[in-house]
Recover the amino acids of this structure.
C-alpha cells in the first residue's frame, strides 16, 4: 500500500501537551438549519419541546459549573452565569415562541431566525468588546438547538464514543471542552477561536492538549484520520510516517515523565543536600498567573510587575482600582511574601521595533524610567504606594523600588512613602507601619557600592537583565550588539558576588529575579556565589527546584570562585559544565 | 416613576458580566426597570436587551424604575453602575 504524504497544519498554541490518535469531527455547522414550518395543530407540542430543550440546556450548563476546578471557578462561573441568563432571557425566549406560534416556524428555524436578528443588531454595535459577546449568544443557541435534536439521548452515548479520540471542530464552546475532558478525549483542534477565549482558558486549566485557529481543518481532516497534535507548538500532523510518529511518541513519553517527576518534586521542601534552605519564588506579570504560581508551590511572589495595570489605556489607574487588584493577589498568597515592584514604565515598551544602529535614536533604557519616573511624577507614585500600603495589612507585602542609581533616590522615595502613610492615617485607613522597603539592584553604581546602599534598605533584589545590559553597555533590543549580552561575563559575576556579600554582611536578604534565576545552566553557579533566594517565571520552578534540592553547596563554592576569575571564555564554559555535573 | 441619569464608567462598559450583574439585581424587584441610551431603550431585566443597547465606557444612560419598590431599585442600580460593577 502506498503511504500518504504527511500534511502539517499550523494553529495557535493554546494548551500544551501531545496527543496522538484518531480524529473525531464535531461540526456545529453554519447552514445546517433548514427553513422549516410546522402545522398549526402542532404548535403546542413544538413549544413544549422548546421548553424541554431550554431546561436541558440550563441543566447542562449547571453541570459544567459543578465540574470546574475550584481554583478558576470564580472566573469561569461568571461567564457560565451569563450563559444561563441568556438561555433564561424572557424577551429572547418569547420572541422565539412567537415565531413558532405565529409564523409557524419549526423550533430550530425560529431559534435560528431570532439569532440572526440579534446578530444583526450586534453588528451595528461600535464597541468591539461588546460586539464579541455575540459569541456567547451563539454558543447558547447552538446548545439549545443541539438539545432539540438530541433530546434525551445525549451525554451517555456521546461520552463513550469520544474516548481516546482527538476532537476536531469548527468552533469550540466551553461545554465542548468539558465534554471532551469528561469523556477522556485526547485533545482538541478547532478551526476558529483565539488564545484567550473562555474555551481556551478552560483547556489550559484542564491540561487538555489543544490548538485553535487551524485554517480549513475541517475540510482537510476526515473522521478517523491518524493525527498528531502538539499543543505547545500549535502543530497538527496528518498521515505522519513512522519516523515522525516515533519522534512524537518519544516526546510525549518524555513530557509525561517530566511532568510526573517534577510534580512530585514540588511537594518537597526547598532544601539542598547539605541542608541549606533556599527560597524559590515566582515572578508575576498578569493576575491570571496566580493559579500556576499556587500550583508550583512557590515561596512567594518575588517580583510583582505592576505594569499590567498601567498599559493599554489612556488614564492612570486610581488608588481604589489598584487596591482592588492588589487585594486579590495578596489575599490569595496568604502569609507568603509579595514583593511589589513600583511602576517601571518608560523603558522597552517605548522602544520602536525598528531600531538600528546608525540612526540617531534616544535610548529609553537610560532615560526617565523606574524610580526616576516616579520621583518626577510624585502623584502617580504616591497613588500606587497608598494602594500597596492598604493591602499590606492583608498579608506579607514589601515595596521594591526599581532603577535605583543613588542613595539620595532611596531617601526621596522614602519621604514620599512617608507622605503616603500620613495621608492614609488622615483617611483612617489601616496599613503595616513597618512595611519593608527594598531596592532592585540593577545599575552598576548601586552594585559596586552595594555595601553602602545596604545600610539604607530592608532587602536587595538583583535584576540581572538590566544589570548585564548596563554593565556591558549594550542595548539588548539592538540585534547587532546583543551577541555581547552575557550574564556570566566576569565583571557581571563579580558584581553579583559583591551584592550578595553586601547583603550577608549587613544582614539583609538578597534575591535574584532576572531571567538568570530561571535558567538551569546558572542555578549551581548562583548557589555557589552564595545566592539563597530565586524568583523566576512560574513555569521554570520545577526544573530549577530539581537542581537546587539535588545540589550540595559545599561542593560548589570553590569552582564558582574559579569561574569569576577565569579569563578565557572557553575555559569558563568548561568549568560551568563541570559545575553542573557535580 | 424614578429617573436617574448616570455615566457608565467601568473599563469595558455594559459588557456581558456587567449586564449579568444588572439582570441579577433588577430581577429582585417588581418594578419595571429600563435603561435608556439616546432614543434607544432596554428592559433592564433582559441581558440580551442590555447587551444590544451597546453602552461602552463613557456612555450616558438614563435609568428608570416604576412600581412598588422603585426607590430601592433605582438606588441599588445606580450604586452598582457607579461602583463599576465591583470589578477590579
Amino acid at each position: 500500500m502506498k503511504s500518504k504524504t504527511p500534511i502539517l497544519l499550523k494553529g495557535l498554541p493554546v494548551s500544551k501537551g501531545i496527543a496522538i490518535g484518531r480524529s473525531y469531527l464535531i461540526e456545529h455547522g453554519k447552514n445546517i438549519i433548514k427553513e422549516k414550518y410546522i402545522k398549526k395543530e402542532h404548535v403546542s407540542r413544538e413549544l413544549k419541546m422548546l421548553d424541554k430543550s431550554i431546561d436541558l440546556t440550563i441543566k447542562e450548563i449547571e453541570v459544567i459549573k459543578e465540574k470546574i476546578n475550584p481554583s478558576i471557578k470564580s472566573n469561569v462561573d461568571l461567564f457560565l452565569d451569563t450563559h444561563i441568563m441568556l438561555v433564561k432571557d424572557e424577551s429572547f425566549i418569547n420572541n422565539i415562541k412567537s415565531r413558532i406560534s405565529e409564523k409557524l416556524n419549526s423550533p430550530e428555524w425560529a431559534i435560528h431566525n431570532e439569532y440572526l436578528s440579534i446578530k444583526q443588531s450586534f453588528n451595528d454595535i461600535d464597541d468591539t468588546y461588546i460586539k464579541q459577546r455575540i459569541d456567547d449568544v451563539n454558543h447558547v443557541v447552538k446548545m439549545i438547538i443541539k438539545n432539540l435534536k438530541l433530546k434525551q439521548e445525549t451525554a451517555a452515548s456521546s461520552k463513550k464514543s469520544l474516548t481516546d479520540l482527538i476532537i476536531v471542530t469548527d468552533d469550540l464552546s466551553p461545554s465542548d471542552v468539558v465534554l471532551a475532558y469528561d469523556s477522556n478525549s485526547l485533545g482538541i483542534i478547532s478551526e476558529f477561536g483565539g488564545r484567550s477565549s473562555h474555551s481556551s482558558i478552560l483547556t489550559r486549566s484542564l491540561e487538555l492538549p489543544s490548538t485553535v485557529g487551524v485554517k480549513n481543518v475541517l475540510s482537510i481532516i476526515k473522521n478517523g484520520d491518524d493525527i498528531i497534535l502538539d499543543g505547545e507548538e500549535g502543530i497538527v500532523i496528518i498521515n505522519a510516517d513512522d519516523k515522525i510518529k516515533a519522534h512524537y511518541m518519544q516526546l510525549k513519553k518524555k513530557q509525561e515523565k517530566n511532568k510526573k517527576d517534577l510534580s512530585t518534586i514540588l511537594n518537597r521542601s526547598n532544601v539542598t543536600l547539605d541542608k541549606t534552605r533556599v527560597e524559590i519564588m515566582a515572578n508575576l506579570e498578569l493576575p491570571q498567573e496566580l493559579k500556576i504560581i499556587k500550583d508550583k508551590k512557590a515561596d512567594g511572589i518575588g517580583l510583582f510587575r505592576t505594569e499590567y495595570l498601567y498599559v493599554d489605556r489612556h488614564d492612570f489607574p486610581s488608588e481604589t482600582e489598584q487596591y482592588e487588584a492588589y487585594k486579590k493577589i495578596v489575599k490569595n498568597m496568604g502569609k507568603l511574601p509579595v514583593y511589589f515592584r513600583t511602576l517601571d514604565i518608560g523603558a522597552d515598551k517605548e522602544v520602536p521595533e525598528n531600531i538600528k544602529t546608525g540612526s540617531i535614536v534616544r535610548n529609553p533604557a537610560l532615560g526617565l524610567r523606574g524610580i526616576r519616573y516616579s520621583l518626577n511624577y510624585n502623584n502617580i507614585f504616591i497613588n500606587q504606594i497608598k494602594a500597596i500600603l492598604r493591602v499590606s495589612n492583608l498579608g506579607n507585602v514589601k515595596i521594591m523600588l526599581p532603577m535605583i542609581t543613588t542613595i539620595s533616590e532611596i531617601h526621596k522615595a522614602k519621604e514620599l512613602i512617608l507622605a503616603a502613610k500620613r495621608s492614609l492615617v488622615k483617611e483612617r485607613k489601616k496599613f503595616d507601619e513597618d512595611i519593608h522597603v527594598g531596592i532592585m539592584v540593577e545599575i552598576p553604581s548601586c552594585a559596586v557600592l552595594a555595601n553602602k546602599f545596604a545600610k539604607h534598605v530592608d532587602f536587595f533584589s538583583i535584576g540581572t537583565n538590566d544589570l548585564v545590559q548596563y554593565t556591558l553597555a549594550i542595548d539588548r533590543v539592538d540585534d547587532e550588539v546583543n551577541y555581547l549580552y552575557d550574564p556570566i561575563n566576569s565583571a557581571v559575576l563579580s558584581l553579583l558576588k559583591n551584592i550578595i556579600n553586601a547583603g550577608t554582611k549587613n544582614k539583609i536578604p538578597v534575591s535574584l529575579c532576572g531571567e538568570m534565576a530561571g535558567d538551569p545552566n546558572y542555578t549551581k553557579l548562583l548557589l555557589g556565589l552564595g545566592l539563597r533566594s530565586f524568583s523566576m517565571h512560574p513555569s521554570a520552578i520545577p526544573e530549577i527546584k530539581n537542581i537546587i534540592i539535588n545540589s550540595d553547596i559545599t561542593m560548589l563554592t570553590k569552582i564558582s570562585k574559579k569561574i569569576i576569575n577565569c579569563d578565557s571564555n572557553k575555559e569558563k564554559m568548561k568549568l560551568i559544565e563541570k559545575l553542573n555535573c557535580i | 416613576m424614578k429617573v436617574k441619569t448616570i455615566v457608565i464608567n467601568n473599563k469595558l462598559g455594559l459588557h456581558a458580566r456587567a449586564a449579568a450583574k444588572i439582570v441579577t439585581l433588577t430581577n429582585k424587584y417588581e418594578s419595571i426597570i429600563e435603561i435608556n441610551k439616546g432614543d434607544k431603550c432596554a428592559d433592564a431585566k433582559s441581558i440580551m436587551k442590555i447587551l444590544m443597547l451597546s453602552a461602552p465606557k463613557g456612555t450616558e444612560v438614563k435609568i428608570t424604575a416604576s412600581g412598588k419598590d422603585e426607590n430601592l431599585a433605582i438606588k441599588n442600580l445606580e450604586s452598582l453602575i457607579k461602583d463599576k460593577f465591583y470589578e477590579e
